[in-house]
Amino acid sequence: MTSIFALLAVVALVVVWFISMYNSLVQLRNYVDNAWAQIDVQLKRRHDLIPNLLETVKGYMSHERDTLEAVTKARTHAMEAHGPADVGVAEGELNGALRGLMINVERYPDLKASANFLALQEELASTENKISFARQAYNDSVTRYNNRIQTIPTNMIANMGGFTKRELFVLSDETERAAPQVKF
């Protein structure tokens, strides 16, 4: 009789341990999803700022049509991207287009002094910082999650529960790794 109780106690402990490990994996997966949602919020904010920025500079930079179209095209591509890899590439293209725009702004002193432009510049710089922090938080969450699903013994539970490795949000080339230039 005692051996049956001992066996039941061991089985109960294994079940409790299994449930605990499974729940911790669910929590980590939800942290990753939340961190990605935070990046998405900041990217949307950035994408929403760009038309205002373009509208402000359009009157001053009427001869820079190619630059303005490049930013618009890159913004559209970035808004359509899905997943960390695609978003990383698309946002890199958008960063490059915005850098080109900001370089051209140097030729227009009246634009650089415009209150609207200065406010948008500040908003864009603030948003870039928030995106950077959101990327860092996302990558930290993904690393914790990936470590958990790949280490023993939780990897067995992760395999049974369908938990899969997540991608880090990595910038795709060296030009994207440079800080965006929003200096005027």
SSE layout:
Layout (H helix, E strand, L loop, with lengths): L1 H57 L6 H16 L2 H23 L3 H5 L1 H36 L3 H8 L12 H4 L7
Helix pairs in contact: 1-2, 1-5, 1-6, 2-3
Written account of the structure:
The protein has helices spanning 2-58, 65-80, 83-105, 109-113, 115-150, 154-161, 174-177. Helix content is 81%, strand content 0%. The radius of gyration is 24 Å and the shape is rod-shaped. It has 7 helices and no strands. It is mainly α and 184 residues long.
Task: Please sum up the structure shown.
With 184 residues, this protein is mostly helical. It has helices spanning 2-58, 65-80, 83-105, 109-113, 115-150, 154-161, 174-177.
Report the major sheet: none
Secondary structural class: mainly alpha
Radius of gyration: 24 Å
Q: How does the overall form come out from the CA principal axes?
A: rod-shaped
Structurally, how many domains make up the residues? 1
Number of strands: 0
Low-confidence stretches: none
Number of helices: 7
For the record, the CATH class is Mainly Alpha
Strand content of the residues, in percent?
A: under 5%
Mean pLDDT: 89
CATH architecture designation: Up-down Bundle
CATH topology: de novo design (two linked rop proteins)
From the N-terminal CA to the C-terminal CA, the straight-line distance is 82 Å
CATH superfamily: LemA-like domain
